[in-house]
Design goal:
single chain; alpha/beta; eight-stranded parallel β-sheet; 12 helices; 8 strands; globular
């Protein structure tokens, strides 16, 4: 089978943002991931883009105007002057005000949007944005380290061209922000596999949350207990996703690959290996649907980088060596310097065979309630949010010889990436 055409989005600035001392969310994990992707030579097998930066209007397609205005204006120096707005918008401990907060949101949201546009226009088969996948943000507020819900905004873009979009979430936390946004529609089906119970954040995602009105039974939740292992997870994931795709017949997929579902995660309590996490990605890829692949949670950053690099390889059809190539962050990966370290923990598996069987039976019963794939009336397709020239082009300095907007539109000639055994430039 031919290798899918993959578009990969990365902005070098995204790893420089910092939530604050002691905060578990580390955007620096994106720099580690990208460096591994480069050192494994995956860059030569896909198209890499510095992404578009989302405007306030883009973000306002889902979020309220006053919330977007707040994100643009608030800084660590002036946040005290916002008083009650901090509480109103749920900004504080989990979602702190940090330097460049709006720029950070603009980068990861713009990348997800641009990925959706490229999928809509058949410019790629798979679009990857490891900076995205911030699934907790709500229309009027931040939540769970997430400020802007890039997933919802990207799905809204996909819906212009695709009658049905399937959202799959393998983060350890319930994808509540995405589910809530599409809870009453049948044009988006949300499927979330997550830890539930014991006051685990966000406290939603029970198997009985199934959607409402036209969206009834189009929200599917698979609530898991501590310590789920590879075999148990895949024994649920594969039959559920197979049946979802058979019944719903999606025309595009958004896959959120939160890496906090791995064993040894700083905030997690599962026992998944990187191989099993990647097997979920490989399973979804095999359906050959236009797919937007996003990051999400993940707080043991060396394992996040390993996981997302492995999954980039899977999406490209590349089998990566277990020995990590030397890279700028090599010491982060000691003592084993492997792509697949042992991630098993002492957390006891609370998911008994009986519980998993009952959960699978209940999930399949919910799927039986679905009608055949819902249809959509013909309608006018709004224009793409991206205009022909990047927004920053109009601000180019006419005296600058080679502005950034020109560089971003340049592409490498195919022969530049030749790496065969007769390459005369090989060492």
């Amino acid at each position: 089978m031919a290798r899918p055409k993959v578009a990969y989005f990365y902005d070098a600035d995204v790893g420089n943002f910092h939530y604050g001392p002691g905060h578990p969310m580390k955007p620096h994990r994106l720099a580690l991931t990208h460096n591994l992707v480069l050192q494994y030579n995956l860059w030569s097998k896909m198209e890499i883009y510095r992404p578009y930066r989302a405007t306030p209007e883009d973000i306002g397609r889902f979020h309220s105007t006053d919330y977007v205005n707040f994100l643009q204006r608030v800084t660590p120096d002036n946040y005290k002057s916002f008083g009650a707005y901090l509480q109103k918008f749920n900004v504080g401990d989990d979602c702190p005000v940090f330097e460049g907060i709006y720029d950070f949101c603009s980068i990861y949201t713009g990348a997800s949007l641009e990925g959706a546009v490229k999928l809509n226009n058949n410019q790629c088969d798979v679009a990857i944005n490891w900076a995205g996948g911030l699934h907790h943000a709500k229309k009027f507020e931040a939540s769970g380290f997430c400020y802007v819900n890039d997933i919802v905004i990207a799905i809204l873009e996909l819906l212009k061209y695709h009658s049905r979009v399937l959202y799959i979430d393998i983060d350890i936390h319930h994808g509540d922000g995405v589910e809530e946004a599409f809870y009453t529609t049948d044009r988006v089906m949300t499927v979330s596999f997550h830890k539930y119970g014991g006051h685990f954040f966000p406290g939603t995602g029970d198997m009985y949350e199934v959607g409402a009105d036209r969206g009834r039974y189009y929200s599917l939740n698979v609530p898991l207990k501590d310590g789920i292992d590879d075999d148990g997870y895949l024994a649920l994931f594969k039959p559920v996703i197979r049946e979802v795709i058979a019944k719903y017949d999606p025309k595009a997929v958004v896959l959120q690959c939160g890496a906090d579902s791995l064993g040894c995660d700083r905030l997690g309590c599962f026992n998944l290996s990187i191989a099993a996490h990647g097997a979920c990605v490989d399973f979804v890829k095999a359906f050959n649907l236009p797919t937007l692949v996003l990051g999400g949670g993940g707080y043991t950053i060396r394992n996040v980088a390993r996981c997302w690099t492995h999954e980039t390889g899977i999406l490209l059809g590349e089998d990566l060596p277990d020995d990590l190539p030397y890279n700028d962050y090599f010491q982060y990966f000691k003592p084993d310097f492997k792509l697949h370290p042992n991630t098993r923990t002492a957390v006891e598996n609370g998911n008994t065979p009986e519980y998993l069987q009952e959960l699978l039976a209940h999930t399949m019963e919910n799927l039986r309630q679905l009608d055949s794939a819902p249809s959509v009336m013909m309608q006018h397709v709004p224009p793409d949010f991206l205009i022909a020239a990047p927004p920053d082009a109009e601000y180019d300095d006419p005296d600058e010889r080679d502005p950034q907007s020109h560089k971003d539109r340049r592409r490498e000639a195919g022969q530049e990436l030749y790496d065969g055994e007769h390459d005369h430039e090989r060492d």
